[in-house]
Design goal:
Helix content: 10-25%
Number of domains: 1
Number of strands: 11
Largest sheet: 5 strands, antiparallel
Shape: globular
Strand content: 35-45%
């Protein structure tokens, strides 16, 4: 059911038909284009067609470059957007909170990866953990394993971003700032 829409959007990327462009409100788009002039807004056509087909078949998030979630619990939907550099093979991740109708871009990360290999998706609230890579679990004592554990317990949604088939960074807005944790096990 989603497949025909994805194919149509991929064939004619306009604001009205491109789901990635449609997921970013016009005022936020204007702010991003003004403040990040070396970067282009994401379009569904930035993703290989095979990836779009696979995503449609599995019922995945509709645009691999825009995530929508209420990250601060205020009832407004916030955005995470991957921008494509206009001349280099890099992406910029930004997070924008919708605070009383104004967009606040508070997070910016640049990664040397191609847009087609990048992804951002919403994450549900909950506990996320990642053990640091200092020795193997088999050689560490239980106490040492606990000392090397990083975690985030979030009461609000967040998002995960990075390169396909690789560890990704999870981001949650907590105590007035963004918290980051590298995790595995996502697409």
């Amino acid at each position: 059911m989603l497949l025909p829409f994805l194919l149509a959007a991929a064939a004619a990327p306009t604001t009205a038909s491109d789901i990635c462009l449609a997921m970013v409100p016009p005022r936020l788009t204007a702010q991003i284009e003004r403040d990040h002039a070396d970067y282009a807004m994401p379009r569904l056509t930035d993703s290989p067609i095979e990836r779009l087909m696979s995503n449609a078949e599995t019922g995945g998030w509709p645009c691999p470059f825009v995530a929508i979630a209420d990250v601060d619990g205020d009832g407004s939907l916030d955005r995470a957007v991957l921008l494509k550099h206009k001349t280099q093979s890099t992406v910029r991740l930004i997070a924008a909170r919708n605070v009383e109708g104004m967009w606040r871009i508070e997070l910016q990360k640049d990664w040397p990866i191609a847009m087609g290999a990048a992804i951002v998706e919403p994450l549900e609230a909950g506990l996320y953990e990642q053990a640091r890579a200092s020795g193997t679990a088999a050689t560490q004592t239980p106490a040492a394993q606990l000392d090397n554990l990083n975690s985030i317990q979030s009461d609000h949604a967040g998002f995960v971003a990075g390169q396909l088939e690789s560890a990704k960074a999870a981001y949650f807005f907590q105590n007035g700032k963004w918290a980051e944790l590298w995790i595995e096990g996502t697409r």
